[in-house]
Write a structure and sequence with these properties.
Elements (H helix, E strand, L loop, with lengths): L2 E7 L3 H12 L6 E8 L7 E6 L2 H13 L6 E10 L14 E2 L5 E6 L5 H10 L11 H10 L4 H11 L4 E7 L6 E6 L4 E4 L3 E5 L11 E4 L4 E5 L4 E5 L10 E2 L15 H7 L1 H9 L3 E2 L4 E2 L8 H6 L2 E6 L1 H17 L4 E5 H6 L8 E7 L5 H12 L3 E6 L5 H6 L2 E3 L12 H19 L5 H12 L1 H9 L2 H11 L4 E6 L3 H16 L2 E6 L17 E4 L6 H13 L4 E6 L11 E5 L8 H18 L18
Parallel strand pairs: 17-18, 17-19, 19-20, 20-21, 22-23, 22-24, 24-25, 25-26
Antiparallel strand pairs: 1-4, 1-10, 2-3, 2-4, 5-6, 6-7, 7-8, 8-12, 9-10, 9-11, 11-14, 12-13, 15-16
Helix pairs in contact: 4-5, 7-13, 7-15, 9-13, 9-17, 13-14, 13-19, 15-19, 16-19, 17-19
The protein binds fructose -6-phosphate.
The site of fructose -6-phosphate (F6R) has 15 residues, from helix 9 and helix 17.
Catalytic activity: D-fructose 6-phosphate + L-glutamine = D-glucosamine 6-phosphate + L-glutamate
Enzyme class: transferase
Subunit structure: Homodimer.
C-alpha cells in the first residue's frame, strides 16, 4: 500500500527520502515521487515523479539535480510510493501533488471520500486538476485557505475532508516546516539527533533513529529538524509517549538471500524461538501471556471466541479455532474481518474477540476491531508490528516477536501466529477443562517447533527439484483435512500470490463435491497427509485424484511408506503431533511456492497488484 516519508534535518533530504522510499517498497506500489523544498523561502519546490519503481524516480531526480538552474536544496523533503486506487499508476497520478500556485505539496495515504464534491467546488473557483486522484484536492484546498499560517491552513483543510489520511505537507513559503496528520492511516514520527522524520512505517525511519512517537487519529504534528508539536484538530496540544523500536536495520535487509521471502522462511526457527521465549511454563502446566491482561477468573468466563483476520492471518486463525476447541473446549468462529461487520455477528457477554494481523494495520481487521468495541466485546490483538494501530486500539493482546516481515507474502508471521494461538489455547484450556498432563504434552511439543521448522528448511534443495517438475503448471489444487485444512488453504494462497499459478485449497473431502470435475493430468493436487487422525481418509482422496490422472504431490511424515503407492512426489516433514503439523506443512508449501515463483521468473517479494499491508477497506 502507499507509503509516505518526510525529512527535516541537516542531511541531503532528497537522499534520505529516496532511501526511505526504498525501505517502503516492500509494501507494494506502482509509482513514486518526491518534493524537495528550497532553502530560500519562496523558491519553487523541486517535484519529481515517476511511474514504476523508486529506481526510476531516483534516476530522474539525479537528472534534475544535475540541472544547474535548480534551486539550492534544503534539508526538507517529502516522498511517496503510490498503490493506485483512484486513477492509473501514471506520473500525473503519482504523489506528491502540488497546489495550483505550486507553493504547497502533499503526500497522502488513504482515501478522501468526498473528493468529488471538493473537486467540483474547487473547479468552480478556477482550480485546474492535473491528476485523477482523490488526493489532489488537498493541495488546492490548502492554497485556497492559506493566509500566511501553514498549520492553520492545513487544519482548516483537514476539517473539510471526509475519509482517511496519513498526510504530509510542505510549502515553499515555509522552508523549515513539515506538517503531518493522521486519520485512519498510520503516521509515525522518528526523533533523531538534529533531524526529525515522518513516515507511514517504521522501516523507513529505522536507519536514522529507533526513537519514535506514533500519532493517533485526529493528531496533527508540526515538525522542524529539532522539534515537533502535536495538537488535536482543534489545535489543543497533545502529548504522546516516545517508544524505542527493538528491530534493527539488519533485520530489514536481505542479508545475502536473493529474496526477503526466502530469508524470512529461513528465519522461522529463530522467529519461533522468540515467539515461545519465556512463555511456556512446564512447572505450572500453562502459558504465560501477560499482554492478554486477563486473570484466571476472566479467562474462565470466556465461553465463545470470534477470530477476525484476513488472508494468511485468517488461515492461522482457522488453526486457532481447532486449537481452542480441542484444548480449551471453547466454541470458536473464524470470520473474514470485513465480513465481521457485513454480517453483524453476535457478541455475548462472555465472548472474546481476537483480531489477528501481522502488520496491525489491515483496514478490514481494524474495522472489525472497532465494530467489536462498539459491541462491547473483550478484544485482544495478535500482532507482529509493535505499536501498530490494531495493537494499540485493542490495548491488550500478544505480540508475535517474529521480527519484521518485509516480503509481501507472509511466511514467518503464519508459523508464529499458530505458535502463539497454541499457547493461548493452553492458557485458556487450563482455566477450562484441560488437565496439567495434557497441557504439558502440548507444551513439550511446542518446544520442538524451531527444530521442526529447521528440518523442513533443510530440505530446500529437494523441494526446489520437485518444483522444477511442476513449474509449467497453470492450475493446482491443495487438499487436507482437520488441522491440515487451513494449512492447505494457506499453501494455495502462497502459490497463487507469488507464482501466479491458479491454486485452490479445499478440504480433502470436498473435492468430490464438485472441484474433482476439473482434474486432469495437467492439474496436480498437493496433499497434506502427515500422520494424523484423518490420514487414511486423505489417502482415499489421493486415490480419487490419481484415478483422474492428476499428479499427486504429498507432504507426508518422513519414513511413512503408506504414502508411496499413492503419490508421484513426496516432501517429507518430521514426525510431530497433529496440532503442530500445520507449521512444518506450511513451511514446505512456502518453499514449494518460492521455487515455483523463482523458476517462473516472478517478482517474488513484490507480487503484482499486491500490497504488504492493506490499509483500504
Ligand atoms: C498473504 C498475505 C496476506 C495477509 C493479509 C492480512 O501472504 O500476506 O493475505 O496475510 O493481507 O495481513 P495482516 O496479517 O497484516 O493483517
Amino acid at each position: 500500500m502507499c507509503g509516505i516519508i518526510g525529512y527535516a534535518g541537516n542531511k541531503n533530504a532528497a537522499n534520505v527520502v529516496i532511501s526511505g522510499l526504498k525501505r517502503l517498497e516492500y509494501r507494494g506500489y506502482d509509482s513514486a515521487g518526491i518534493a524537495q523544498v528550497s532553502a530560500t523561502a519562496g523558491q519553487p519546490l523541486l517535484l519529481v515523479k515517476a511511474a514504476g519503481k523508486v529506481a526510476e524516480l531516483e534516476g530522474q531526480l539525479g537528472k534534475q539535480l544535475d540541472n544547474p538552474t535548480d534551486q539550492q536544496a534544503s534539508g526538507l523533503a517529502i516522498g511517496h510510493t503510490r498503490w493506485a486506487t483512484h486513477g492509473e499508476p501514471t506520473t500525473e497520478n503519482a504523489h506528491p501533488h502540488l497546489s495550483q500556485d505550486g507553493n504547497f505539496a502533499i503526500a497522502h495515504n488513504g482515501i478522501i471520500e468526498n473528493y468529488l464534491t471538493l473537486r467540483s467546488k474547487l473547479t468552480q473557483k478556477g482550480y485546474e486538476f492535473i491528476s485523477e486522484t482523490d488526493s489532489e484536492v488537498i493541495a488546492h484546498l490548502i492554497q485556497d485557505v492559506y493566509e500566511g499560517d501553514l498549520q492553520a491552513a492545513v487544519m482548516t483543510t483537514l476539517g473539510q475532508l471526509e475519509g482517511t489520511y496519513g498526510l504530509i505537507v510542505v510549502s515553499s513559503l515555509h522552508p523549515d516546516t513539515l506538517i503531518a496528520a493522521r486519520n485512519g492511516s498510520p503516521v509515525v514520527i522518528g526523533i533523531g539527533q538534529g533531524e526529525t522524520l515522518i513516515a507511514s512505517d517504521i522501516s523507513a525511519l529505522i536507519s536514522h533513529t529507533k526513537r519514535v512517537v506514533y500519532l493517533d487519529d485526529g493528531d496533527v504534528v508540526t515538525v522542524s529538524k529539532d522539534s515537533f508539536d502535536i495538537t488535536s484538530l482543534k489545535n489543543v496540544p497533545v502529548s504522546r509517549d516516545a517508544t524505542e523500536i527493538d528491530w534493527n536495520v539488519e533485520e530489514i535487509e536481505k542479508g545475502g538471500f536473493d529474496h526477503f521471502m526466502l530469508k524470512e522462511i529461513y528465519e522461522q526457527p529463530t522467529a519461533l524461538t522468540n515467539s515461545l521465549r519465556g512463555r511456556l511454563d512446564l512447572k505450572g502446566a500453562t502459558a504465560k501471556l501477560s499482554g492478554m491482561q486477563l486473570g484466571p477468573s476472566d479467562l474462565a468466563h470466556i465461553d465463545r471466541i470470534t477470530i477476525a483476520a484476513c488472508g494468511t492471518s485468517m488461515y492461522a486463525g482457522m488453526v486457532g479455532k481447532y486449537l481452542f476447541e480441542d484444548f480449551a473446549s471453547i466454541p470458536t468462529d473464524v470470520v473474514q474481518a470485513a465480513e465481521f461487520r457485513d454480517r453483524n455477528p453476535i457478541m455475548q457477554r462472555d465472548s472474546m474477540m481476537l483480531a489477528i494481523s501481522q502488520s496491525g494495520e489491515t483496514a478490514d481487521t481494524l474495522a472489525a476491531v472497532r465494530e467489536g468495541v462498539r459491541k462491547g466485546a473483550t478484544i485482544l490483538g495478535l500482532c507482529n508490528v509493535v505499536g501498530s494501530t490494531i495493537a494499540r486500539e485493542t490495548g491488550r493482546g500478544v505480540y508475535l516477536h517474529a521480527g519484521p516481515e518485509i516480503s509481501v507474502a507472509s511466511t514467518k508471521a503464519f508459523t508464529c501466529q499458530v505458535a502463539v494461538l497454541a499457547m493461548m489455547s493452553v492458557l485458556l484450556g487450563r482455566t477450562h477443562r484441560m488437565s496439567a498432563e495434557s497441557a504439558n504434552r502440548v507444551i513439550s511439543e511446542l518446544t520442538r517447533l524451531p527444530e521442526l521448522a529447521q528440518a523442513v528448511i533443510d530440505q530446500e534443495d529437494k523441494i526446489a527439484k520437485i518444483a522444477e517438475k511442476y513449474a509449467h503448471i497453470e492450475h493446482a489444487f491443495f487438499i487436507g483435512r482437520g488441522y491440515l485444512f487451513p494449512a492447505v488453504m494457506e499453501g494455495a494462497l502462497k502459490l497463487k500470490e507469488i507464482s501466479y499459478v491458479h491454486a485452490e485449497g479445499y478440504h480433502a473431502a470436498e473435492l468430490k463435491h464438485g472441484p474433482i470435475a476439473l482434474l486432469t493430468k495437467d492439474i496436480p493436487v498437493i496433499v497434506a497427509v502427515p500422520e494424523s487422525s484423518g490420514k487414511a481418509k486423505t489417502i482415499a482422496n489421493m486415490q480419487e485424484c490419481r484415478a483422474r490422472k492428476a499428479p499427486v504431490l504429498a507432504i507426508a511424515t518422513a519414513g511413512d511408506t503408506d504414502i508411496h503407492a499413492h503419490s508421484d512426489d513426496i516432501i517429507e516433514i518430521p514426525r510431530c503431533e497433529e496440532f503442530v503439523a500445520p507449521i512444518p506443512v506450511v513451511i514446505a508449501e512456502q518453499l514449494f511456492a518460492y521455487h515455483m515463483a523463482r523458476l517462473r521468473g516472478c517478482e517474488i517479494d513484490q507480487p503484482r497488484n499486491l500490497a504488504k499491508s492493506v490499509t483500504v477497506e
